[in-house]
Design brief:
It is built from no helices and 44 strands. The protein is mostly beta strands and 471 residues long. The chain starts with a strand and ends with a strand.
Length: 471
């Protein structure tokens, strides 16, 4: 039998199902809330999903008839300070008490056969799994040695914790979308009992026991981080959403970076890779594969508002530029043949993508969310239509030539200049950038989008600066 939801005693919406009551919504006022054991002659057995979500209750008294507390039942209760779980409860679903910043105590009746609590922290009965730590915990918290598993987002929002020590039996932690330390804004260290057989820490950063893989980087650390020599892998979402991470230096030993490792790191401005690394490389703070044929990651806080993808690049990796909100324009060279999924997704301030060649292959979501951008292409190029992967297109003139790289070649200082095929470009030199006098050094007409410029007289000057411009 099922009856439609209706209001009971001006405080609860509920449903009746098979002779029991599920509370679907609390509609009453602030303060202490006592959930009745019986409504309309039926036992109240379930607190439904999101039933108390975002309400202003201060504390909740649950009757001994309650058996189930469902998904997100008390989520975002900003004034909730304490909850007592009665002995009758057999199920508490994920995120039941998530986002309750004043919650200091999740107490469990000692006769409950499925759950327990110690110092306000919620565990399963035998305390092998830590389910939820109240968000008011401060300082250092040591996970008991009985615990082997830590639940998804178990420490969510514990903004006053500075250090968490994993006990000797912990063998499973949550990462990524279920990061157990999500939004622990002052957590600067994750330390590990030296007798733990599964994890270790290096300077408060969580690693696998053999120290080969970065597992989790603390939420509250600010500034740049140098990954220790000997590290071979960065785990799934190890640095995900670390909003204070400013830069990452990678050692020669690093050979694997898992998907999502650096997702949503809004302050990340530069990657630096040891030149002896056999798999990865970096240039101007951008992460590439070793041969620089694939652009892997463009740091979201890179200071340049415009970027020209180097002419060696053939592939722009999935999520390579995702959410790079500093960018306003990107120039994509003729060499690019593939643009991956969400490669430029949510680049909200990009207004122009300049393509130097025919349209490269693109995943259908490559430019997802870029609602203000236009794809500009050169007149005379083929394959262009009125839209490109959801972007409007237009023939256009490009803003400026680009210097892709520079260095000594055959004893002369050389530049690789990218510009429009069959359109003139001038390379100029000056001795200073203070009131410079620019002198034309060479005019060239690129035949394939780039040309090499060499300066045989570079040794005649203590300093020499170069620029490329259109005539």
């Amino acid at each position: 039998m099922f009856m439609a939801a209706f209001v009971a005693e001006a405080q609860f919406n509920y449903t009746t199902n098979n002779g029991s009551i599920t509370i679907t919504r609390y509609t009453g006022s602030d303060g202490i809330v006592t959930v009745p054991a019986i409504i309309d002659g039926f036992p109240v057995t379930t607190i439904g999903g999101s039933a108390f979500e975002s309400t202003s209750v201060g504390s909740v008294v649950l009757p001994n008839s309650i058996t189930n507390i469902l998904y997100e039942a008390f989520i975002y209760c900003a004034k909730l300070t304490n909850v007592t779980v009665p002995s009758s409860v057999i199920e508490i679903q994920n995120f039941a008490f998530l986002g309750c910043p004043l919650l200091a105590d999740i107490a469990v009746d000692s006769h409950n056969a499925f759950y327990s609590s110690v110092d306000g922290v919620l565990f399963d009965k035998d305390q092998t799994t830590l389910l939820q730590c109240p968000e008011t915990k401060t300082g250092t918290y040591t996970i008991p040695d009985t615990v082997s598993s830590i639940g998804s987002e178990a420490f969510y929002g514990c903004g006053s914790l500075t250090n968490v020590m994993l006990g000797r039996l912990v063998s499973s932690v949550s990462t990524g979308g279920g990061d157990m330390f999500f939004n622990c804004t002052n957590l600067v260290a994750i330390t590990v009992n030296t007798n733990n057989d599964f994890y270790s820490d290096i300077g408060g950063v969580l690693f696998t026991k053999n120290r080969s893989t970065v597992v989790l980087y603390p939420w509250g650390r600010a500034g740049a981080y140098t990954i220790p020599a000997g590290t071979t892998s960065i785990g799934y979402s190890a640095f995900y959403y670390r909003q204070s991470l400013a830069g990452v230096t990678m050692p020669a030993s690093l050979t694997n970076i898992s998907d999502g490792a650096f997702g949503s790191c809004g302050a990340l401005a530069a990657f630096t890779v040891d030149g002896n690394n056999p798999v990865f490389s970096s240039n101007d703070g951008v992460l590439f594969d070793k041969t620089q044929s694939t652009l892997l990651l463009f740091p979201p806080a890179h200071p340049s508002p415009s970027y020209t993808i180097p002419n060696s690049i053939k592939n722009v990796h999935d999520n390579a530029f995702i959410a790079c909100e500093n960018l306003k324009s990107v120039t994509i060279g003729e060499s690019v043949t593939n643009i991956g999924s969400y490669a430029f997704g949510y680049c909200n301030n990009v207004t122009a993508f300049f393509f130097l060649g025919n349209p490269p292959g693109a995943n259908p979501e490559a430019f997802h969310g870029d609602t203000s951008a236009t794809a500009y292409y050169l007149p005379g190029m083929t394959g262009w239509t009125s839209t490109y992967d959801g972007l409007p297109t237009a023939p256009g003139t490009f803003p400026y030539p680009a210097i892709l790289n520079s260095g000594l070649r055959a004893g002369e200082f050389s530049l690789t200049v990218s510009w429009l095929t069959n359109v003139s470009v001038v390379v100029e030199g000056a001795a200073t950038l203070v009131n410079p006098v620019w002198q034309p050094l060479q005019t060239n007409v690129p035949s394939n989008g780039t040309f090499e410029f060499s300066d045989p007289n570079w040794t005649h000057y203590p300093k020499r600066f170069y620029r490329a411009r259109t005539p």
